[in-house]
Design goal:
Blueprint (H helix, E strand, L loop, with lengths): L1 H23 L4 E2 L7 H7 L8 E6 L6 E4 L3 E4 L6 H16 L9 E12 L5 E10 L4 E9 L10 H29 L5
Helix pairs in contact: 2-4
């Protein structure tokens, strides 16, 4: 009888453990909403009087989530693709600076060539974006945004840290885009 009770207790422990492992894989780690960067707003002031339109930003696989170990995916808060998130963030920065216009003579489009992140030691987001201007010019911009991660975080904690680090990574990427806007992206065709 004692042996049978130990077997039942062991079986219940296995079921509880399996349930915890299964449920921990169901989490979803959403990024925050994009917020305008003060540094980007200041940099865009130098383009006062310029008008820019923003077309579609795409990626070949329409990535809207990236798996994070066995804990669940990192996604954008509204579930759009990461390329669309970057497009909207860039557009918001231009609107805030007063230089966005749907009827502008130059339209910028983008292709997200790479998006990935690492967690724990050496945690960083890797973003590679090719921008194309309607003036025929293009430029590729990369951002490797390092953030503090930890393998000792609570289960899924490293995934939550990655999700939180996405917005500042995009802010830095847009800062690099702004540096490229005057030349070659906005320079008029000859």
């Amino acid at each position: 009888m004692k042996l049978h009770l130990k077997g039942v207790v062991a079986m219940k422990m296995i079921i509880v453990l399996a349930t915890v492992v299964f449920l921990s894989g169901c989490a979803n780690f959403a990024t925050g909403r994009y917020s305008i960067s003060t540094d980007n707003a200041v940099a865009l002031r130098s383009l006062s009087g310029t008008q820019v339109n923003v077309g579609n930003f795409t990626d070949k696989d329409n990535i809207s989530e990236i798996a994070c170990h066995f804990h669940g995916p990192v996604t954008t808060l509204d579930g759009e693709t990461f390329a669309s998130f970057i497009q909207k963030a860039f557009t918001d920065e231009l609107k805030m600076a007063g230089i966005y216009s749907k009827t502008a003579p130059i339209t910028i489009t983008g292709r997200l060539d790479k998006i990935d992140y690492t967690t724990a030691f050496g945690s960083e987001w890797e973003l590679l974006l090719t921008l194309n201007s309607s003036n025929g010019k293009s430029v590729t911009i990369s951002e490797n945004y390092k953030y503090t991660g930890s393998v000792f975080a609570a289960p899924g904690g490293e995934c939550a840290q990655a999700a939180l680090a996405f917005v500042p990574a995009v802010q830095n990427l847009i800062g690099k885009i702004i540096e490229q806007l005057p030349v070659p992206l906005l320079k008029a065709e000859k």
